[in-house]
Structure formats: structure tokens, C-alpha cells
Amino acid sequence: MNAPTPPIRSTDRAEGASTPEAATPDAATFLDRLFADGVLMPSGVDGLYGRSGAFEEVIEGFERLVERFARADGAIKVHFPPAMPRVNMEKSGYLKSFPQLAGAIHSFVGNDADHCRLIEALTEGRDWSDLQSPTDVVLTPAACYPLYPAVAARGPLPEAGALFDLKSYCFRHEPSKEPTRMQFFRMRENVCLGSSEQVRAFRERWLERGPEMIRSLGLPCELDVANDPFFGRGGKLMARNQRDQQLKFELLVPVNDGAEPTACLSFNYHQDHFGALWGLTRADGERAHSACVGFGLERIALALFRHHGTDTATWPAAVRAVLWG
Where is the signal peptide (predicted)? Predict the structure, then answer.
């Protein structure tokens, strides 16, 4: 079993990269510029924005780039809705590890009298949330979460394992004025299920591909060991163990003014965690391991607007060629 690739620390500017404007201590400066130039549209809630046509075209171009690799690898394309069964989130342990990020969907299930109370509360400007009850669905926190129980229900994996190309809108409750920290965002993931050797080889391939892909877009990047934002005192130990075992790497790109670089890609080895959780087995009956590479689509688009400007027509020809041919 090969050891994970060590962190690649390279902040050399890729060929075709433009120089971003001087950083300022005001984290909202870049967001204000995105609003002023019509790239994003405010909603009145931090982290909840409309996207312009130009923004969507950038994401579509990047997704075509990802799809070329996924198709060549033989990945099965599956897209899930931005919600999943509540029981699956409960079983997954997400609420134990990340309660601060989870979002549940509530709805009105009352009678006529309750409806009258709801209207009265709205009319008087009072809180009406006590008249809503949890539904059977929650907001999807990561594109891969609905995949594991769905695949497990189909029986053992083929001997060669399985590779999937996923996409979903995701939700995480962390309102912020940093444009890269949206509450609703799109995540593209390639997920590999199989033996430890198969999934680690998959992650190794993407640890090489990821930086090359981002540098082809004229963006500086740095690959480093990372950890998930586990909650509470116990979470600190889990984060330390995750880093010590090098189970998670992130590809960091400078985006926000005066802030640390932003994680735009993540490379995760779950060991047999989801295999044990959902009863995912290989053809030989052993538990399946899993690994994934995740692409934060909004973050990658924002990095491009940050480094190349808000008018895509002026972007370097090499970058435009990668995105749109």
C-alpha cells in the first residue's frame, strides 16, 4: 500500500495567469465588486446570491473539463437532488460531526386553526417557525452522501470497483460576507468505491491531475493536508487524526482579499467508513473502501473572476481555450 502523496507546496503562478489586485483588509471588497459588475446578485442574506449568465458559463466550461477526465476514466454519471432522506443524514453521523452546518427542511402540517395562527403571526411580524414541523428530507451537505446507500442497495461491487461522477447543489449553514463561503453551492465529485488499493490509486491520480487542471486555468495553487470542520471538543481529536493519517488534502487558491487561500478542490480517503456504515461490500465480500475528489464549482469560478477580472472577454486566451475551446 503506497503512502499518500506528500503535500505539494507550489504557489508559482501558472502560465497565462494575471496578477490580482492588491489585497485589502476588507473581506467584502471583492464581493462588492462582484455585485457592482453584475457577476453576482445580492438577496439580502449573506451567502445566498444570484448568478449571472457569465458566471454560469464559467462553471459550465469547467464542468466540461472535469467530464472529459471522468468519461475517460469510465465514471458513471449520476446527479442527485439537493435534498436527501433525513434518516440517512442521521445514520451517516453528519449531525454528530457537523451540527453547525446541517440544514433540515420544515413545512406546515397544521389544521385550520394553526393556519389562522400562522396568518396572525405574519400580520403582526412575529416568529411563525413554531408552526412548522420537520419533514422527512434534509438539505444535502455533500454531493456524495446520497450515493453510498443507493449503491449498497444494489448489492456487492464488481471486482474492478465502481467510479461515479456526481453533481448536486449542497447546503451548509455558515453565512458569511466572504463570497467563497456560500450557503448554497454546487459540488461536483468523482467517487471511487472498491478495495483500499483501488481507491488510493484513484486519489493519487487526482492529486496529480488537480493542480495541473487548476494551473491550466492560469490560477496559482497550493496542495496541503487538511481536515474537516468537526464540531466540539471531540472534533478536535478527529481533526488531528484525519491530518495525521493524511486522509484529506485540499487544493488552495487565493481568492478573498486579505484572507487565507480558499479550498477549491478536496481529495478524501474515507477508508472503509461508508462501507461499514451502509454495508457496502466488494465482490469478495470484504467491506468496500471509498475516496472522492470534490470540486467547489462556485469557488473555482470566483477564483477565475478574482485573478482574471469580471469581464470574461478579457481573460487570457489560454484560459478561454481551456474553458470554451
Answer: none
Torsion sign across C-alpha atoms 236, 238, 242, 245: positive
The arithmetic mean of pLDDT across residues 32-37, rounded, is 95
Q: For residues 109 and 100, what is the distance between their CA atoms, to the nearest angstrom?
A: 26
Paired strand residues for 85 = 137
pTM, 2 dp: 0.87
Domain boundaries, the chain: 29-103+141-324, 107-138
Instruction: State the Cα–Cα distance between residues 259 and 38, nearest whole angstrom.
Output: 23
CA 59, CA 299: separation in Å to the nearest integer? 10
Kindly tell me if the per-residue pLDDT of 221 is higher than 90.
yes
How far, in Å, CA of 231 to CA of 269, rounded? 20
Q: pLDDT of 275-285, one tens digit each? A: 999 999 999 99
CATH topology for 29-103+141-324? BirA Bifunctional Protein; domain 2 (3.30.930)
Does 300 have pLDDT greater than 90?
yes
What is the identity of the amino acid at 310? Answer: T
Report the residue count for the chain: 325
